[in-house]
Structure formats: structure tokens, C-alpha cells
Write a structure and sequence with these properties.
Blueprint lengths: L8 E3 L4 E3 L3 E2 L4 E2 L23 E6 L2 E7 L5 H12 L10 E3 L3 E4 L28 E4 L12 E4 L12 E7 L1 H5 L20 E4 L5
Amino acid sequence: MSFFNVLIDRRSAIGVTLAAAFALAACQQVAPPPQSAPAPETQPAPAASAGNTLHLDLASGRVVIELRPDLAPNHVERIKTLASQGFYDGIVFHRVIDGFMAQTGDPTGTGRGGSDLPDLKAEFSSEPFKRGVLGMARAQNPDSANSQFFIMFADGDFLNGQYTVLGRVTAGMEHVDAIKKGDAAANGLVDDPDKIIKMRPASQAG
């Protein structure tokens, strides 16, 4: 099984291009450069309930995530199921790109693993990838998301409509910002990475 590892971010203001790649189990394929397009507006989220709120505990503190079943009901159910089982506890942030995103959810720590549950069909929406958004990682096949997810450090509108948005950070973003960053020369791979201490639905969290 293989998953999204890195994407392309272009910063034209200072004429610097930061390039990365999608990694597959057998080979690497480069993502197409983002196209200029007006960023869609964020849709108002329904009021979150304890059942649709995750508590993600890191070494530096707690991150609160509001899930969006109105956007991606199957992906939200998957994350809740795995979190309820303690699947994410101890899993590392194996790929972290400063100014872009932090990726986790692979029990092998390689970016190619997942859970024993079947892959999910894409639930793409018009919800934009803004700072704090939780997105589901996948391989080149749009219907290959399983357990891996990423949290955005900054806006990434070039991801819009290509990955499933399933939630957003509502508190504790400073703890996400503090996650150990990876080596830019190694496409964000992290040496001695930080890990998830515990992740549970708020209704189960201590």
C-alpha cells in the first residue's frame, strides 16, 4: 500500500520554487505544478459535537480537531473508528514539510502502510485546504485513502478538489506548529520523528 508523501508548492513572490513528489511503493511520480485559480471560500461548518471532535495529544499539548461528516462522511467514520481503537497511539509524523504540512497515520512509519480496513473512495469537495485543515493522504489512485492524514501548516489551495478534506484544527495549532520538521533535501522525511501520544474522539478522551 502506498500513500501521498509530498506535494509541490510554488512561491512566485520571490521567484523561489519548492518542489517535492508523490511517492508510491514501487516508484515516485511528480505531481503537476499547481494552476492559478481563485481560491474558493470556506463553507460554514455545522456545530461540532463530542462525537465529531477528536483530541490529538502531542508531547507539547492537546490539539482539538473538528471533523466534517457533512463533507466526507466515510473518511470521518474511518478516522473515528481507528481513533476509538487506539490505532493512532504512538504513530509518528513520518513526513513533515515546514510551511506545508505534517503527515502521520502510517503504523510502519514509511508512508506506505495503513490499517487492515479497505481503502476508501474519494470524497472530494469544494472545501479549500487552508491552515489547520485535516486532509486524507492517498496514493496516485484517488480511491486509495486508508488511515494516513495530514495537517496543513499553511494554505495549500493547489490541493483543492484533489484530496479529501475531513476536518480542521480548532484549538492547539501551536502544538502542530511545534512538530519536528523533516529534511527538505529528503522530501520532508524526519529523523527521530515526533509521535502521536494519544488520539481519541472527545467523547472517549480523558
